[in-house]
Amino acid sequence: MLHRCTAVSGQIAQLDPLEGDRAADAIIQLIEVLGLSAIDSVITHSTNNVRFWTQKLARKVDLIRPVFVPENLPHEPGERTGRGLVIGRVQRWKGPHILCEALHLLGQGAPEIDWIGRDVPIHKSNGSTARHLSQTWPDVWGKKIHHLPEESPAQIRERQLTAGFVVVPSTWDVFNFTCVEAMTAGAPVICSSGVGASDLIENGVTGFVYEPTSGPSLAENIDRLLAMSPHHRSELGNAGAKAIKQALAPETVLPARLDLYHALSSQARKPLPVDDELINICSPAEATTSLDASLNEIALRRLLVHSFHRILRKFGLSRA
User: Which domain holds residue 244?
Assistant: First the structure.
C-alpha cells in the first residue's frame, strides 16, 4: 500500500490552528501518524515535506516529483504589465502578512500587486484574514495589495501571461502548482523557500527564492527584480519555463515512480494494526443528543446575535 502525502488535515491544523479546534485537531494528527506509520510506502512532492514526515513518522519517506504537462497557452506571452500577482487563499500560512511587511518596507517604491483568492478565517472560525490584514497593514492591504475574488482557470492563466511578476509567499506549502503554472507561462517568479516547488528554482537564474518568514528578504528580492530591465526579466521567465518543462516532464518523473511501484509489488504487504479505540473514533455513530437539546445549552442572546449576523451575510450586508 502506498500513500502520497499532499496537504493533509492534521498537518494544516498544526500549521494554522483555530481556537476551539485543538482537541479535534490533535486526534486527527494522531490518526494520520498511526495510519501513515503502518502502510508500506509514503511519498511526497518536495524535500520540505520529506523532512516534515520523516521526522513525524520516524520512517523513510520518498521524494517523487509530480508530472506536470502544461496546457497549450492561449497565446504567447506579450508585453507584461508592471503589476505583481499572487494566486492563493488569503490565509495565514499563504504568507499575506509577509508580503504586507515587504511592501511596507519598500515604501513609495512598492509595486501594485493583485491577490486573487478567497478569504479564510484566522485565529477563530468567524475571523477574517483579509480584515485582519487591513487593520494591521492599512497602508498596504487595499492600497498596494488589491484583494480580488476567485477567478476561473482561464482568467488565471491570462493573468499569469501578462503579470509583471508572480509572488508565491507561502510560509509553507507541500508543492504549490500555481508557482509551476506561472513559471511555465514565462512569468518571473519570486518564491518562498517554504514552498515545495522552490526546489525547482535556481536562485537568480530561473527565478528568485527568499526566506519564508522574512519580510526584509522578500522586499530585497522584489527590489532586485524591479531593478532588472524588461529584457532580463523576460530571460528569467523563459529560463524558468524551460526548467519546469524539463524537471516535471513524464519522461523525467515516471521512471522513478515505476521503480518504486515495482519494488512495492515484489515485497510482502504489511498487515495493518487493529486498534479498537482508533476504530471507534473513526467509525460513524448515532447522535446521542438532538440539535434542539444542543441549542438549548446556548444562551438566547448568543443565538440571536449569531442569527442576525448570518442574515446580514446572506444578503451581503455584512462588512466581514
Answer: 84-248
User: Is there a contact between 144 and 112 (Cβ–Cβ < 8 Å)?
Assistant: yes
| Residues 19 and 108 both lie in one domain | no
Length of the chain: 320
Q: Is residue 261 part of a domain?
A: yes
Counted domains in the chain? 3
H or E stretch at 4:
strand 2-5
- For residue 201, give the nearest of 190, 211, 212 by alpha carbon: 190
Whether residues 140 and 19 share a domain: the answer is no
Beta bridge pairs of residue 209? 191
Residue bearing cell 518564491: 191
186-237 pLDDT per residue, tens: 999 999 999 999 999 999 999 999 999 999 999 999 999 999 999 999 999 9
Give the span between the Cα atoms of 14 and 270, in whole angstroms.
28
How far is 287 from 307, CA to CA, in rounded Å? 24
CA distances from 263 to 46, 53, 54, 256, 266 (A): 21, 21, 20, 11, 5
- Could you tell me the CA-to-CA distances from 265 to 2, 101, 150, 251, 269 in Å, in that order? 11, 50, 42, 22, 9
The one-character DSSP state at 110 is: P
pTM: 0.79
